[in-house]
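Can't attach files on this board, so I'm pasting raw text. These are the components:
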Amino acid sequence: MTKKIAVLPGDGIGPEIVAEALKVLDCLKQDFGLEIETEQALIGGAAYDVKGTPLPEETLALAKAADSVLLGAVGGPKWEPLDYSVRPERGLLGIRAELELFANLRPAILYPQLVAASTLKPEVVSGLDIMIIRELTGGIYFGRPRGRRINENGEREGFNTLIYNESEIRRIAHVAFQIAQKRNRKLCSVDKANVLECTELWREIVVEVGCEYPDVELSHMYVDNASMQLVRAPKQFDVMLTDNMFGDILSDCAAMLTGSIGMLPSASLDKNGKGMYEPIHGSAPDIAGRSIANPIATVLSLAMLLRYSFGDAGSADRIEKAVITALDAGYRTADIYSEGMTKVGTAEMGDAIVSAL
Amino acid sequence: MTKKIAVLPGDGIGPEIVAEALKVLDCLKQDFGLEIETEQALIGGAAYDVKGTPLPEETLALAKAADSVLLGAVGGPKWEPLDYSVRPERGLLGIRAELELFANLRPAILYPQLVAASTLKPEVVSGLDIMIIRELTGGIYFGRPRGRRINENGEREGFNTLIYNESEIRRIAHVAFQIAQKRNRKLCSVDKANVLECTELWREIVVEVGCEYPDVELSHMYVDNASMQLVRAPKQFDVMLTDNMFGDILSDCAAMLTGSIGMLPSASLDKNGKGMYEPIHGSAPDIAGRSIANPIATVLSLAMLLRYSFGDAGSADRIEKAVITALDAGYRTADIYSEGMTKVGTAEMGDAIVSAL
Ligand SMILES: CC(C)[C@H](C(=O)O)[C@@H](O)C(=O)O
Ligand SMILES: CC(C)[C@H](C(=O)O)[C@@H](O)C(=O)O
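---
Top answer:
Structure tokens for the assembled complex are below.
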């Protein structure tokens, strides 16, 4: 049966990089008979400009009806003067919440071809392969009460609520333990249990869930130490489990260890494995429209989509191998360029991957 | 007039490293006539064990009466089973709050002698000199309501409140701008204004305060991007301004860039410049009692104390130069050891610094 992908290019470099992923998908459809249809819709600033909201009803309806979602990126300085409630980011947060995509999988893998692109010394990072599992629909991102008010002294005051309940922590912990079981059976849960009661509960529940996975070695780390250890000795980590806010910070740090935020895909899954897939990087407004963005993170997001949501490991493998072939052939977009390589633009990188499929 | 330092060694390696700083102070008193007296008191787990509380009244009274405070470190696994309200960390948070030490200055400096100890490539970090200004008595660390409860579904729930008002943001922003003025007039304020209303206010107020410092170039960065940029190109930063939680995470990451969390001092100041000084690193229970801890961060914290709270730049310079002389002579504790250097223990490093004074 034909499956459907809702394609949401978004803002900045979003449309450029999504176009390359679709080229890859088209090739797979033509040459390998994949039965997949795509339909595009607006999200983020692009949606606000046309519809006055970053998450129009028809976009949400399409995403809900589709079997899975491929997203580019949202946001940019153009929309920063807007009120908080209609900023592009609200589109992204809104779709995460509406689709209940609570499990965000963020791999940080250093491709051997890119060791030179990392700012860390080769002996510290080569072979790096971390999977960060970030809780995505709870915590301080969504907690209430939140907002701004005038306090009793007549001053402006801003407030947000970090909040998690048992079942929210439990379900993301299960995801993390199950992924750890398929990898090296080592899970490090990150919290700030020495200061924040909310994350004290986090630790408690993770320990409880851990009893069901005696084959996984569970450890705990305070978030400040984790951000330090990521720089000191990142290879000590295999799977990391974090809340929404800490995951936002640590996954960007981990991604950068690989020298290439432009390389890394991500998956955001609901409890049935339906998911939204997007590059870890943002909309990069500074380079938008210049055809120099790296499409690999988005192409690999498509691979993750096929693997996790459509159970098509064959096609996912094929894409991942094609990316490696393109890297082996020396093709590099500007963000991952190092001496002696062939510098290419967005579309040329897409072409190189397609011809390696 | 004789000035008084309250000395709070704390837990783990705290007593060992503080002892070395006091050796340095004694030498300065004897050889250069500094009129300073010290008095020790318990804090953290050490205080809990004797007094049943991590911040005994007499410790607080001493700290309040003294002209400034030198602290080692608190915490350790021994006290982790304890209830949150009496853990060693509460002693540290309590004294910060009671003394209203809202401005935490955390330099991340890479000593040229230690380039080899950094996990980052020399071209990325050599010459690194960042000053992180962290708000220390507000935000989610202290916000109320906080705690745990059973929700309407009968589930456990944990919650904390991130909250800042105008004057809290204003006073830390002034500190940051004034420090930026004395450095390279570049200030980067870190927030998550695209998601959290509280940090949206943070950004707004920082912009307002910035109008009073037209000579300082102000920029803003989302916290996830900041953690990435610290790894990608840390030398782009000069002074960074953060809230309490983000500062906790980013300052540890920045410290590690220098290859040596054992090297970095910090100052926590109140509005009159009275302060508490402590190494950035923790109590390192794994190496406590083994006489291998690096005392330099604590020795440099004493230097900061003399400079900022006692206005004695001469003695501060003398200490800082002595540390450099010891490094130039090749002395290295285990944490900063690299091939060809002379590995020394805690007391030997202290002696090397004293003899270079
Ligand atoms: C754009 C922003 C709302 C988002 C987040 O903070 O979650 C982004 O940084 C991410 O990590 O996906
Ligand atoms: C020990 C802990 C409470 C403390 C903090 O989180 O502030 C420490 O990590 C620090 O950075 O000084």
